[in-house]
Write a structure and sequence with these properties.
single chain, 230 residues, alpha+beta, four-stranded antiparallel β-sheet, three-stranded antiparallel β-sheet, 9 helices
Length: 230
């Protein structure tokens, strides 16, 4: 449980009334981002206020009328999810930077430079985001922001999201190793043909080099990979 000194205010206006709770910023952030958390650990005080700084508590009548319950934990969960959490500027900067790195990783992993057909290094994407003055919302997931970020950086950096259909053949002796690799890249179909394992998979073009490298390592360079036309 967070101490009152380290807690921040989460607040909401509802039915003409104002409600506040004191929460752990990290746990409240996770809850607001859809994660399952311990609400009891999130609360500094298991109490709903009209003004937490003055210690003015909300009436049970108002809570029952507007939230349908007087359970502080259930009410606090709703306040955090639907209301505002007053995080510090430093906390916002930290979380925005974490989200920025997630977005960069996503774009680097799943997209390519249409000119070279190779993934963009993370540093190049980061530089493009800085040049384009991209704003990151720490309360939105990386996936929710990727489209807007890509749209912004395309003015300075060509980015293409393509997928490849691959036909892969490996010798039977490497089958178990190859299965271990393929599981990292999602669902695929497989069948045995004589002494060969044949696999078909569809992957983001940005993952091509990584998959090729891993398969070559576990098959000692004997793997055969063909890119099928769509």
């Amino acid at each position: 449980m967070v101490t009152v000194e380290k807690a921040v205010i989460a607040k909401i206006d509802k039915g003409g009334k104002h409600f506040e709770v004191l929460v752990d910023p990290e746990i409240a952030y996770d809850l607001k981002n859809g994660k399952i958390v311990s609400v009891s650990r999130m609360l500094a005080i298991n109490q709903v206020f009209t003004d937490s700084k003055k210690g003015m508590r909300s009436s049970s009548a108002d809570l029952e009328k507007l939230f349908g319950t007087t359970d502080s934990e259930k009410i606090s969960e709703e306040i955090v999810k639907k209301g505002d959490v007053q995080i510090t500027a430093e906390f916002r900067r930290k979380k925005a930077e974490e989200r920025r790195k997630q977005i960069v990783d996503f774009i680097s992993k799943f997209s390519i430079d249409p000119r070279s057909k190779l993934p963009h290094p993370p540093e190049r994407i980061m530089n493009a985001m800085e040049q384009s003055h991209v704003k990151i919302d720490p309360f939105k997931t990386a996936e929710q922001q990727v489209d807007d970020v890509v749209k912004a950086i395309r003015e300075v950096l060509p980015v293409s999201f393509e997928e490849l259909n691959l036909h892969i053949e490996v010798l039977a002796q490497y089958g178990s190793r190859v299965y271990g690799v393929m599981k990292e890249f999602g669902s695929f179909t497989d069948q045995w043909s004589g002494d060969k394992l044949i696999i078909k998979i569809r992957i983001p073009a940005g993952l091509r080099e990584k998959l090729y490298r891993m398969l070559n390592n576990v098959t000692e360079g004997t793997v055969k990979i063909q890119e099928e036309k769509k």
